[in-house]
Amino acid sequence: MxxxxxxxxxxxxKVVLTEDGASxxxxxxxxxxxxxxxxxxxxxxxSLNKFSPQSIQSMILVDYISKIEISMSEFVSSRQEVMDLxxxxxxxxLYKQFDREVYQALIQCECxxxxxxxxxxxxxxERTQMSERQLRTILSNKENIIQTTRxxxxxxxxKSVMGNEEFSSEEKNIYLLMSEKFMNRLGLMNWYxxxxxxxxxxxxxxxxxxxxxxxxxxxxxxxxxxISVMVMELALNNENTNIRKEAKQMYHGIKDIDALIxxxxxxxxxxxxxxxxxxxxxxxxxxxxxxxxxxxxxxxAITLYNKDDExxxxxxxxxxxxxxxxxxxxxxxxxxxxxxGQEGTDLGLYYLSYLDDACKKVNVxxxxxVNQFSASELTVINLNFNF
Length: 387
What we know:
The chain has a 9-stranded antiparallel sheet, sandwiched between helices. It has 15 helices and 9 strands. The chain has helices spanning 19-27, 53-61, 79-106, 110-118, 132-139, 143-162, 169-184, 188-197, 203-220, 222-250, 257-261, 264-277, 311-321, 331-336, 345-361, and strands at 9-17, 33-36, 42-51, 65-72, 280-287, 299-307, 326-329, 365-373, 378-386. Helices cover 54% and strands 18% of the residues.
């Protein structure tokens, strides 16, 4: 898990805030920026150039972020940072979904149902609302119960990981750490229910339910690595398309463009020119609805735009004419149709099939779509996930 490696990431982020996020920033006298995103939509948010992965994760966990976008002429030099950011985003969504599923499971447990029958005016169900302050006050003197029950829940999970002969010692460590990370991000409302019934004879039913969900999410977390590799591969592909196009303009008549663009000095010159012309590759992560969008919370849409100055015109043409100029295809078709010798095509297909398999195994819905605008060699790639 690479999200803990680097405590500060340096990437030019545009962070679009949800209503809750915007209200929070404004209430702390933080000025919001208005910026235009790759699809020419104007949004309010904040921009960051240096940030800690933890701060982004905390904001996602409290539903403050609706979209994150980065745009650069070249991604190679920021490879690790982009992959780390991608993993942070995916893990944040997994933590939130885990918390949500645990809550759904707990309110179905017999001890909670029994409590609801006996206390019709104090129901614990989907509609129960308690403020964070209220929950913190109630839980403030229950630290011992929390630590004990946490251990009771985790010990069988640890035992099963340590006893699994198929895991290498490194994998065992990753799984042990992962199980703790998920439990550490369990919300206050869930701890309120767990501590309320910890001494109840039905407590074991709750612990088993949590363990089952935890093991599912530890499996789902494998997908984060594949997604980060796939995103990077696509960004590099778009970057190479732009570099190749620029090289043809800068070096007329040279037949072996590929040899040229992989010469570090020449490549640096081309990248400089792309930056001067403001030709960028845009990468965005759109997080499924906030706490109010029922059924959409576990969604993530990753979009890559290869953008040039004609983008808006192309977009309008598409929208008015839905012209034959746009080919909608799957990512697999997109890779198969790339020109011969375009570096990384096989790798892209290889990563894609891994990602596809990994998603199917752990019940994460995944679809990929590519819009290609032939007139301007533009591509818009969408990767949609539902965790």
